[in-house]
Amino acid sequence: MSDVKDTERDPVYDVVVVGGGAAGLNAALVLGRARRRVAVVDAGEPRNAPAAHMQGFLSRDGMSPAALLEVGRTEIAGYGVSLIKARVEHIDHGFYVRLVGGAVLRARRVIVTTGLRDELPDIPGVRERWGRDLLHCPYCHGYEVRDRKLGVLGTHPGSVHHALLLRQWSDDVVFFPHTLEVDDADRERIAARGVRIFDGTIKQLVVDGDRLRAVELAEGRVVPRDAAFVFPRMVPNDGLLTGLGCATGEDGRVVTDATGRTSVSGVWAAGNVADPRAQVVTAAGMGSAAAIALNHDLLDEEVDRALEEHRALATLR
């Protein structure tokens, strides 16, 4: 990646993309191919960094997240996109993109693809095993742990659905309600699905030989498990968007249209910052859709300006 000083010779960009994950890089790829002047600013903290592989991405199934990003950076650099390793501190209206350290990039439009952060339950072993054999997405990792002893930690209302869903991948699934209140109707659904329930507060994940071995309950029961799933609290990294005044919905998330356009003119959002359910392939598609819509927005502005100049010249003739 280039450093910030490289951009100061020509600091005005058609688009500054904040965030260099799948959404941001794919947006930059489309815009670079459209011959737009683009900069991607990335702090280098991808959400899926703990995962060794990603699945469900056609032609990239099983590829490591780090390898995907490296290929993406190389591709966009080939179209003249500036790659800046830095953290964005604030975006002013206008759009002045202020980086930590004092440098400022000027943009005509902005795409924010800063993702989200996973807030994990405070259970010993959870953070250490996260992304390894403590997982979240069955579609991302279920196949890799198929037919094994699976556990679901009841730390979120969505955990019940997790337990029901994971039964597709294994005949041996245990649901640990932990501190979650599970009503009789849900207990009946879980039992009907063939999932066992072990009540009691989870004390810790038992790890041995750098592998998850069991889930231990506070009363002493130890339930052997090969892998476990947990539903984290997903918090969007949307401070830059709300700082610009982008409207949020009843769920507290920034509101966008189908292309990622926010309520603030000239500002788009794509990837997990806009949709917590977006997988890597989905986020890449969102970045593409945002880039195309944004390019047309720039085109409209340029045509309007050209028309004004054309008419002004005509009056002088």
TrEMBL record:
<dbReference type="InterPro" id="IPR050097">
    <property type="entry name" value="Ferredoxin-NADP_redctase_2"/>
</dbReference>
<feature type="domain" description="FAD/NAD(P)-binding">
    <location>
        <begin position="13"/>
        <end position="285"/>
    </location>
</feature>
<protein>
    <submittedName>
        <fullName>NAD(P)/FAD-dependent oxidoreductase</fullName>
    </submittedName>
</protein>
<dbReference type="Pfam" id="PF07992">
    <property type="entry name" value="Pyr_redox_2"/>
</dbReference>
<feature type="transmembrane region" description="Helical">
    <location>
        <begin position="12"/>
        <end position="31"/>
    </location>
</feature>
<keyword id="KW-1133">Transmembrane helix</keyword>
<keyword id="KW-0812">Transmembrane</keyword>
<dbReference type="InterPro" id="IPR036188">
    <property type="entry name" value="FAD/NAD-bd_sf"/>
</dbReference>
<keyword id="KW-0560">Oxidoreductase</keyword>
<dbReference type="InterPro" id="IPR023753">
    <property type="entry name" value="FAD/NAD-binding_dom"/>
</dbReference>
<keyword id="KW-0472">Membrane</keyword>
<keyword id="KW-0285">Flavoprotein</keyword>
